[in-house]
């Protein structure tokens, strides 16, 4: 009769190969995502002049698919030895600011179209933002409407100087600091 060695139950032997691989792939993705940050912010996160900074610079420069994949793997390997939580937090903050900027851009474009599109849009703008330079904006609205009419006749693009200047003025009004009413 053969006796089998009894194995102790519930003995933890560490993470599985799959868990280790997934962790490595996550670090590679983090390295590639870090490249979305501007150079100044990336330099603030990676302060030491070592192999990680060089590897990140190389990863930004490399465009060939296979080489980029190998370099991302190398960056992931180097990130194992670094505390990545500050990097994750910086990315989260950067993405939050980026989405806020996109929302602001959409709001500016919507106001511009509303103001050019109808007098009701203009009235709503002047009611909501009476402190702006409405005389200059009104002149730009008139010019932008004329540009649109001319573009319908000629078939050209109707987004001239007035269209761009309106964007700048609306952006300035919308992004201006709000006066506090705590006085």
Low-confidence stretches: none
- How much of the sequence lies in strands comes to under 5%
Q: Which percent range fits the helix content?
A: over 70%
Can you tell me the overall shape? elongated
Give me a quick take on this structure.
The chain contains 8 helices and no strands.
Task: Present the secondary structure layout.
Elements: H1 17-34, H2 39-45, H3 51-61, H4 65-79, H5 85-117, H6 119-128, H7 134-154, H8 161-175
Helix pairs in contact: 1-4, 3-4, 5-6, 5-8, 7-8
Molecular structure report:
- 14% of the residues are buried.
- 71% of the residues lie in helices and 0% in strands.
- The chain has two domains: 17-82, no CATH class; 91-175, Diphtheria Toxin Repressor, domain 2.
- The mean pLDDT is 84.
- With 183 residues, the protein is mainly α.
- The protein is elongated, with a radius of gyration of 28 Å.
Key phrases:
183 residues; mainly alpha; Diphtheria Toxin Repressor, domain 2; 2 domains; 8 helices; 71% helix; 0% strand; elongated
């Amino acid at each position: 009769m053969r006796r089998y060695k009894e194995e102790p139950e519930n003995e933890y032997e560490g993470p599985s190969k799959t868990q280790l691989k997934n962790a490595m792939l996550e670090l590679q993705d983090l390295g590639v995502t870090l490249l979305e940050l501007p150079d100044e912010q990336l330099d603030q996160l990676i302060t030491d002049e070592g192999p990680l900074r060089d590897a990140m610079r190389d990863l930004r420069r490399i465009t060939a698919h296979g080489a980029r994949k190998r370099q991302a793997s190398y960056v992931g390997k180097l990130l194992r030895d670094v505390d990545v939580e500050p990097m994750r937090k910086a990315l989260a903050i950067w993405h939050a600011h980026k989405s806020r900027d996109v929302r602001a851009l959409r709001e500016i474009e919507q106001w511009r179209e509303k103001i050019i599109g109808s007098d009701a849009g203009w009235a709503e703008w002047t009611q909501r933002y009476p402190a702006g330079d409405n005389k200059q904006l009104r002149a730009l609205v008139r010019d932008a409407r004329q540009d649109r009419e001319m573009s319908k006749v000629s078939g050209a693009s109707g987004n001239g100087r007035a269209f761009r200047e309106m964007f700048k003025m609306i952006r300035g009004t919308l992004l201006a600091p709000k006066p506090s009413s705590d006085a």
